[in-house]
Amino acid sequence: MQAVRNLLRGGLAVALLSLAVAPAPATTLIRADLDHLVAGNATIVLGEVLDASSHWNDQRTFIFTEVRIAPLEVFKGKLRNRALTVTLMGGTVGDLTTLIVGGAELIPGKSYVLFLNEEDLPGVKGARTVRDHSQGAFDIVLAKDGIRAVSQANRQPLVPDAKGIVEPPGGLQGIPLDALRQEIRELVKDPQAQDARREVK
């Protein structure tokens, strides 16, 4: 458990300190706006990470981290249980670490807005995951003007979208959580109105 937490906190530093590091392909992400994130994911939640544990897939070809999350608010989708499990690619098992560059980082005890979808991962079918990697995870932070949601995609360069925009929704300052709540709910309720709205900055 501590190895996983260290990986999530330290990222590349922990990977370099591991006795063996499995290579992972570079991740190139095209900038996704809120329209894309809402439309492309079946479940959107505000939740707190309870714990995380890593394991090999059945074929022992890839390491995954299972993250248990307590939903605080559900914006889209229906959850059967009070806790949900999210599968992330990468993690640490023994002395081997697999690092996914550009992947979402979920740390126990912290809260996030997460855009989740069921996807086929290496050796695992229909896993609930953060499909859009760092773009699908927004850190919940306390700023001077209140609680904000800051996209993890700020941590790496993005390829400009069709409009030429490169920074993730909200930029480095993030989006006030209440504004993000409202924006997501409007998009979930009326997806046809996406082209007529002004994106939250």
The CATH class assignment is: Mainly Beta
Mean pLDDT: 86
| Coarse structural class | alpha+beta
Order of helices and strands: HHEHEEEEEEEEEEH
Q: Please state the overall shape, judged from the principal axes of the Cα atoms.
A: globular
Estimate the strand proportion: 35-45%
Q: What's the β-strand tally?
A: 11
Portion of residues within helices:
10-25%
Ends apart, CA distance between termini: 37 Å
Rg over CA atoms? 17 Å
Which architecture name does CATH use?
Answer: Beta Barrel
Word description of this protein:
The protein has 201 residues and is an alpha+beta fold. It has a single domain, classed as OB fold (Dihydrolipoamide Acetyltransferase, E2P). Helices cover 17% and strands 37% of the residues. It has four helices and eleven strands. Strands 2, 3, 4, 7, 8, 9, 10 and 11 form an eight-stranded antiparallel beta sheet that branches. Strand 9 and strand 10 form a beta hairpin. It starts with a helix and ends in a 12-residue tail after the last helix. The N terminus and C terminus are likely disordered.
